Amino acid sequence: MVPSQLSAEHFRGYPPKARQLAADNVGLLRRLPLGFVPFLLKEIILYDWKFPAEQRELNGQIAYLEGLPDEQRQAEMARFAGLHLDASLEAFDWVNSPAQFLELLSAHLWATHQTDEFREASEQYVHKFYAAFARPALPVPRLGIVVVGHGVGENRYALFRKLRRSGVYFSNVNPANGLETLLETVRTRAKNYPQAYGHWSIQGGGKVAAPGVTCVSYDELTPVRSSLAEKMRAAYESPKFNPETLRTVLAQVEPGSLGMAGDATLDRFQLSLLTEGSGTQIYSTTFVQWAAREALRRAQPLTLLTRYTARQKERPMNELLTGTGRTVATDPEDSLIDADMGAYYTWLNQQRLPGAEQSRFLVWFEDHGEAVAIAPHLKAGTSDASAIHVAELLRKIA
Amino acid sequence: MLRRFRGEPSTAREVAHAISRNRREFLREATGAVAAGTLLRPYPLSALSLPRARKAVVVTFGGGARDDETFAPDGQANIPHMLAELAPRSTFFTQVINRGILGHYVATASLATGVYETFNNFAKVSPDHPTVFEYFRKDLKRPSTDAWVIAPSNGFNRIGESGYRGYGPGFGAGVILPKRLLAAALTNGGEGNFNHLLRDNYESSSFSPVVGGNDVELKTLSDIFQLSVADFVAHAKSLASPDELSVYIARQLMHRLAPSLLWITLHDIDVAHSGAFSLYLDGIRRSDRLCAELWRTIQAEPEYAGKTTMFILPDFGRDSDASSGGNGFQHHRTGDATSRTTWMMALGAGVRENTIVDRPIESTDLVPTLGALLGFSASLAQGKPLPEVA
Fold first, then answer.
1. Closest Cα in chain A, distance from residue B60 (Å)
2. pLDDT of A125
3. Which of A39, A110, A250 to mutate to test the interface with B (most CBs of B within 10 A)?
């Protein structure tokens, strides 16, 4: 089937809001090429469980495409329409399984040397869309906080080398009540600027709950991770195993099958962290970094607090998945290195969001004296050895 | 959302040139041995006036290492051996572009055929085009014992020969999968002590328990290496990773059979897919050390010293931190310039020392270059011999 054959009836298998959105815009979808429509449908089919920021952007994207004069839309779609796709892709049920279609499309583009063309076309399209997309003003500058190094005693790794270039390196931070001070800041912002999924706490350890704060915890997800690991192990031990089949197995997992029965949007989000992320099932450091990336990309929070804890030591993959074998030991020192890079990536991802020029960022070595603070009014690439408390650090970047 | 940071190169070509420039400048500063004039002039003299190679050892990294963790200032501590021991003795190509599929098996196959192979990275298939081993053995009428591949995992077991008519079965290389050998040797319940050597990550093409193809069975291995299973297992106890096991096997092979064409694919770095940055750095440091060990072995083995050219190159790079579609070091999925642009070091017989080549070359140029060095024709390869070394 090709997009011009689409009708509202084709979306009857979609969840309610997604079905309505697709049906309302079937006229637009018919006019888009097969090299593009499934990307839109992949987002639309999940509309019911998307965060408000995502829904806003998806609505905006549809409005943008709908608002273009026909000739201009065709010009914007020309590079997607020019991709050479084969008959098997056309024959695939891309309406009901857009994500699986995109896996096949991706393999096809790589094999036919069209990946670069597709990537450039995508970048061009996205730039044009965002240039035309009006986003609501933020009520307060975005704030990212990363806490690293839980459980580390002596450290010989040169921390925050990358982040120091963008902010002030503090080497004499008084750690007393540091963590509680940071948590209180998140609570206060959630109270003062209430927003659905606008304030997040992502923990490598146990859950840290607060009113108005979306909480994700690696430890809290242990039962889900265990159930998922069991499915992965079964797939792994299958004679037909390969990484592609594993991805298909994971993509088909529903939150309910793993005992998740909370906020549907958050459940889907957390499940996606474990099914779409690599290493998130086995290393808490990877989980925190990836969760922060996805939370920023998708929910665009005003406040994000992430705290890394020690991950388990490296072991063979089958042991990591099953939890069998030797007693699980943690690796605080290497986890600090993981978290240091994770903090840098969190900052990079925060800077990709609207309002980046005003955003604030703080990374702190928990229970130790090192931190980097980044804010528009702080001089990048400098250091400060004077004694300072975490609360004062927060005031400096306010 | 796709954005770039202010001041960064914006096109793939600009990024590739920036990478090349950074590598050149860094090597110049780090090794202190390369004259600026040499860097800036076109390659001055033909390598043909140097002693020609009669043997070649190729080391590829399955799982590229980015400049940030190697040739950039932040990364230099991770590659002390390459910088201090190998780079000053090498012709260093700063800009090797891989225009093919960025999956490890298919990319390694492309390196070995000189053609951008297009098969599914996870399929258990032979390369579609003749491999360097087939060209070498057929053209030069070399026996099967003269070309070997040491590969990281089961997914690579068909890398030694293609399905191409006129080449293929009977002309390929022997393929050794060290982890499979060790697994076969561990028949007495000792597996728990060796899992660190058998590990893999689930993004690699490694999890196929059923394999076939031209790999060497344990008995043949013991015949070749004259090692008892017990000795092999005992030595394995002292090793820390799968790549160490691969290099151990390589050294045994060099000592016993002295093959003229030896291809080793290291894979520890690809632990990066797990997202643990510290493990990725460990992999880089280990690869750095193992490359130096192989170079020293070449110098120490009479069959190799003075007549061997060694090539070291990652199969491709990893995603840039600036690519919003990726996740930095963790993967190589975006196809951005950083993930497609890598480097190559050539050193030994027939190769000029202390030389940096800035012009872009392609990863498919390796096989024709090996052909020019060793005297065979890679007639179906897409690449071209590199005049700087061939």
1. 22
2. 96
3. A110
A311 to B120: CB separation less than 8 angstroms, yes or no: no
Is residue B199 within 8 angstroms of chain A, CB to CB? yes
Does A283 contact B at CB distance below 8 Å? yes
Tokens 């702080």 -> residue: A378
Domain chopping of chain B, boundaries: 12-41+55-374
Q: What is the dihedral of CA A87, A89, A95, A96, to 10 degrees?
A: 120
In A, which residues are within 8 Å of B322 by CB distance? 348
Q: What span, in angstroms and rounded, lies between the C-alpha atoms of B240 and A178?
A: 39
Instruction: Write the CB contacts of B357 (distance below 8 Å, at least 6 apart in sequence).
Output: B43, B91, B92, B93, B94, B386, B388
| Nearest Cβ partner for B2 among A127, A337, A351 | A127
Q: Are A373 and A170 in contact (CB under 8 A)?
A: yes
Pick from B118, B205, B278 the residue to mutate for testing the A interface (most A CBs within 10 Å).
B278
Helix, strand, coil percent content, chain A, rounded in steps of 5 = 55, 10, 35
What is the rounded CA–CA span in Å between residue B243 and residue B196? 11
Q: Express the helix, strand and coil content of chain B in percent, nearest 5 each.
A: 45, 15, 45
Output the tens digit of pLDDT for each of chain A's 398 residues.
999 999 999 999 999 999 999 999 999 999 999 999 999 999 999 999 999 999 999 999 999 999 999 999 999 999 999 999 999 999 999 999 999 999 899 989 988 989 989 999 999 999 999 999 999 999 999 999 999 999 999 999 999 999 999 999 999 999 999 999 999 999 999 999 999 999 999 999 999 989 999 999 999 999 999 998 888 878 777 777 777 777 778 888 999 999 999 999 999 999 999 999 999 999 999 999 999 999 999 999 999 999 999 999 887 655 655 555 556 789 999 999 999 999 999 999 999 999 999 999 999 999 999 999 999 999 999 999 999 999 999 999 99
Contact call for B116 and A113, based on CB within 8 A: yes
CB contacts, 8 Å: A110 with chain B: 101-103, 118, 335
B373 touching chain A per CB within 8 A = no
* Alpha carbon of A339: minimum distance to chain B alpha carbons (Å): 8
Which helix (H) or strand (E) covers residue B313, if one does?
strand B308-314
The reply to whether CATH 3.40.720 applies to domain A143-397 is: yes
pTM here is 0.91
B293, B296, B298, B300 alpha-carbon torsion, rounded to 10°: -130
Listed by start position, the domains of chain A span: 3-132, 143-397
The domain over range B12-41+55-374 is classified in CATH as 3.40.720.10: yes
Burial class (CB in 10 A: 0-12, 13-18, 19+), A128: middle
Name residues of chain B where pLDDT drops below 50: 1-8, 33-48, 188-192, 201-214
CB contact A277 to B (< 8 Å): yes
Chain A contact for B334 (CB, 8 A cutoff): yes
Which residues in chain B touch residue A111, judged by CB atoms under 8 angstroms apart?
101, 118-120
Task: Give the pLDDT of residue B3.
Answer: 33
Residue B284 forms contact with A (CB below 8 Å)? no
Residues 6+ apart with CB under 8 A from A55: A47
- A242: chain B residues, CB-CB within 8 Å: 122, 205, 207-208
